[in-house]
């Protein structure tokens, strides 16, 4: 451990599983290279991806011990050489380099990142709101426009309309001029984004969507749920529906009727943020941060814990309504 480097607490996954062993350890901060900056954590979201990694359900994740954390809002530590970002609040695009997945993550008091991984927050934006809403907003915009190529005259079915990605997808798609059908176990918790949004439950998913669309089905499906809900949603798709899968909170395995897939030419597509070019991520993130700063999208913060309470945060996050944050 370098003697001249700060030592600070970090959240490390010691053992993955249904009851993961998460520990607070002392680590030395890496010395920044020429294209890197040192940052100090302000707030970070304990995302579903972080929890899936901790549970051992992310096949590409590095084996423990692994410092967790795929995103964060942090403040750039001033350097001796000086720089335009010194002292600035920034959002850290951790997945861009596999942080918290294949290499040490963002859940530490201080850590080092590449300069191209950070985007400055707009003035006045609450860093906790940025931490709670940015990852979901980024994934939603990329899935809607880059992967699904949504147009304003289309119908979008959002599965998991109460989660961070789902809430963002509902709001962004409605603002784009699309008709939105938002499905969740608790439809009353789906954000009210105007008359273009219709909330429904999951019990009669295909029947409800087909009834609402006059039998035509949804042109685009944003699927944050997976499992058996994915199969039901396929029956709700229009001909050549673009079905983008971003998560699997209902399970990683489901049964697909191949004949139905072929008959409708249903286009089932996976979404992986790690494959999106950094330049594109930064451009879209700027739009997301502007939405948050202007109040066009409002994330829900369910619980806030100090970094030292990370084991408790992970244990309770799945049962918390809204985003769970770690702060310093």
TrEMBL record:
Residues 17-326 form the Enoyl reductase (ER) domain. This is Zinc-binding alcohol dehydrogenase family protein. Transmembrane segments: none annotated. PANTHER family: SHORT-CHAIN DEHYDROGENASE/REDUCTASE, ZINC-CONTAINING ALCOHOL DEHYDROGENASE. InterPro entries: ADH-like_C, ER, GroES-like_sf, NAD(P)-bd_dom_sf, Zn-ADH-like_protein. It comes from the Bacteria.
């Amino acid at each position: 451990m370098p003697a001249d480097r700060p030592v600070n607490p970090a959240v490390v996954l010691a053992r993955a599983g249904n009851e993961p062993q998460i520990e607070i350890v002392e680590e030395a901060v890496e010395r920044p290279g020429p294209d890197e900056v040192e940052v100090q954590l302000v707030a970070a979201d304990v995302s579903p991806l972080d929890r899936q990694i901790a549970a051992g359900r992310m096949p590409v994740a590095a084996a423990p011990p692994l410092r967790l954390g795929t995103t964060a809002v942090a403040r750039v530590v001033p350097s001796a050489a000086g720089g335009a970002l010194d002292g600035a609040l920034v959002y850290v695009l951790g997945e861009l380099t596999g942080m918290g997945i294949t290499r040490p993550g963002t859940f530490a008091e201080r850590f080092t990142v590449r300069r191209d991984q950070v985007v400055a927050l707009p003035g006045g934006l609450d860093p906790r709101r940025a931490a709670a809403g940015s990852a979901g907003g980024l994934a939603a915009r990329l899935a809607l426009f880059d992967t699904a190529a949504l147009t304003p005259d289309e119908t979008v079915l959002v599965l998991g309309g109460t989660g961070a990605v789902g809430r963002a997808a509902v709001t962004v798609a409605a603002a784009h001029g699309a008709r939105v059908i938002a499905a969740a176990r608790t439809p009353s918790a789906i954000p009210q984004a105007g008359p273009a949004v219709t909330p429904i439950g999951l019990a009669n998913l295909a029947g409800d969507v087909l009834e609402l669309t006059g039998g035509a089905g949804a042109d685009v499906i944003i699927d944050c749920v997976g499992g058996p809900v994915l199969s039901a949603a396929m029956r709700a798709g229009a001909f050549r529906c673009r079905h983008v899968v971003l998560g699997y909170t209902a399970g990683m395995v489901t049964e697909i009727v191949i004949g139905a897939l072929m008959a409708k030419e249903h286009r089932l597509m996976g979404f992986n943020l790690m494959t999106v070019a950094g330049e594109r991520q930064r451009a879209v993130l700027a739009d997301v941060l502007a939405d948050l700063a202007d109040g066009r999208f409002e994330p829900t913060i369910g619980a806030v814990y100090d970094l030292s309470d990370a084991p408790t945060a992970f244990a309770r996050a799945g049962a918390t309504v809204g985003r769970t944050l770690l702060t310093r």
